[in-house]
Amino acid sequence: MTREPDAWRWGVGRWEAYFALVLVSTVIYVLAGGEAWQRDAVAAVLLVALAPWYLLLGRRSADRAAPPPATLGYLAGAVVLSGAAAIAAPESSLVLFALCPQAFMMLAWRGAMLTVLALNATPALRFLWESTTVGAVVSFSLWAAVTMGFSAFFGFWVDRIIRQSRERAELIAELRATQAELAAANRRAGAMAERERLAAEIHDTLAQGFTSILMLLQAADSHLDQDPEQARRQISLAAGTARENLAEARALVAALPPAGLESSSLEEALQRLAERFGEEMGIPVEFTTSGPPRRLAAGVEVVLLRAAQEATANIRKHAGAGHVSVRLAYGGDTAVLEVRDDGAGFDPDAAAEAGRGFGLRGMRERVTQVGGRLEVGSAPGEGTVLTVEVPA
C-alpha cells in the first residue's frame, strides 16, 4: 500500500513560498523608501537575516516536528530581528504578515498569541511614541484590536487544523498497523485451516487406504498355505486399493476432486466403494438410491463421499459387522446419505467425552461447512447408523 504524504506537511511548502514572497516584498518596499537610506539598509539586512534563520531553525518547526527549544529559539530570533528592523524602518512591519501565521504553525494557540503580541509590540510602541494626536492613538488602538482579533480567530483555526491532521495521521498509522496484524492473522488462520484440511483429507483417504491394504495383506498371508486362491484374491484387492490410494494422493497434491468423483457420478463412486468394501471384508454390502438422481455441488459430493469412506473405515476397524447397507436418497431440497451396520455398536456420548474419533469430528466439521448436519445413532450391541443430510 502506498503511503500518501501528510496533508499539512504537504502544505508547508506553500507557506514557505508565501513567507519568501512577503519577505522579498518587504525588503523591496523598505529599500524603495529612499528617505534615510542608511536606516533602510540596516532594516533590509535584518530582514534578509530572517531567511537563513528560518532555514536553520524554523523549517523543522513549521510542522511542529522540531523540539520545543529550537522552536522557541527561532521565534525569539524572529521577534528580535523583525523588531530591530521596525525600529530602523517602520515599513519593515510588513513582514509580520508572514511571521504571525508562522507563530500559529509552530506553537499551540496560547503560545502563538503571546508570540504575536511580542512581534507587534515594537512596531506598536514606536508608532505610539511618534504619534502626536489623540485621534491617531485611538485609530491605532482600534486597528490593533481588529488585527489581534483576526489573528486570534485565524490562529485558533490553524491550530485546530494542525491538531486534526496529527490525530488523523496517528489514526491512519494505527489502521495500517491493524491491517498488517489482521493480514498476518489471516495468513496464520489460512495456514492452520489448510493444515486441518490436509489432515482430514489424509485421514479420510490415504490413512484408510493403507489400513485396508495392511489388513488385506495380513489376511492373504494367513491364507498362503491353506488357500492360495483366496490369498491371491486378497493380494489383488490390496493392489487395487494401492492404485486407488495413489490416485487419491495425486489428486490431493494437485488439489483435484477426489479420484472417485473425477470421472464418475456420486452414485457410481459410492457403488464402487460399497463393492470394494464388501470384497475386502467378505460380507454383504448393499447400496441403494432413491429419488431422482442429480449432480450436487462439488463440495457437497466430496463431503458425502468422504463421510461414506469414514463410515466404512470405522466399520472395518471397530464394528465386526456381518451386514452393511449404504443408501443415498435425493429429496426436494436435501440429499441424505445413510450408512448402517449390524456390528458391535458403541456409546456416542462416552466416545465424545473420551475425546476419541478424529475421523468423526472431521466428518462433522466437513458437513457443517456445507450447511448440513450429521447424526450418529448407536448403542453397544445394536449396530450403528450414520446419517448425513446436506443441501441439494
TrEMBL record:
| Catalytic activity field | ATP + protein L-histidine = ADP + protein N-phospho-L-histidine
InterPro entries named among the record's database cross-references: HATPase_C_sf (IPR036890), HATPase_dom (IPR003594), His_kinase_dom (IPR005467), Sensor_HK_TwoCompSys (IPR050482), Sig_transdc_His_kin-like_C (IPR004358), Sig_transdc_His_kin_sub3_dim/P (IPR011712), Sig_transdc_His_kinase_ChrS (IPR017205)
Keywords tagged on the record: 4Fe-4S, Coiled coil, Cytoplasm, Iron, Iron-sulfur, Kinase, Membrane, Metal-binding, Transferase, Transmembrane, Transmembrane helix, Two-component regulatory system
Keyword Membrane attached = yes
Give the main location: cytoplasm
Name the top EC class.
transferase
Database matches in PROSITE patterns: HIS_KIN (PS50109)
Identify the cofactor(s).
[4Fe-4S] cluster
Concerning Pfam families, the annotation shows: HATPase_c (PF02518), HisKA_3 (PF07730)
Coiled coil segments of this chain? 161-188
Q: Which residues cross the membrane?
A: 15-34, 41-57, 72-100, 107-129, 135-158
Q: What is its EC number?
A: 2.7.13.3
Q: Where in the cell is it found?
A: Cytoplasm
Provide the Histidine kinase domain boundaries. Answer: 197-392
User: What molecular functions are annotated in GO for this chain?
Assistant: kinase activity
Tell me which domain of life the UniProt entry assigns to the organism this sequence originates from.
Bacteria
Among PANTHER family, the record links this protein to: NITRATE/NITRITE SENSOR PROTEIN NARX-RELATED, SENSORY TRANSDUCTION HISTIDINE KINASE
According to its UniProt entry, what is the function of this protein? Member of the two-component regulatory system NreB/NreC involved in the control of dissimilatory nitrate/nitrite reduction in response to oxygen. NreB functions as a direct oxygen sensor histidine kinase which is autophosphorylated, in the absence of oxygen, probably at the conserved histidine residue, and transfers its phosphate group probably to a conserved aspartate residue of NreC. NreB/NreC activates the expression of the nitrate (narGHJI) and nitrite (nir) reductase operons, as well as the putative nitrate transporter gene narT.
- This protein is called Oxygen sensor histidine kinase NreB
Give the source species: Actinomadura keratinilytica
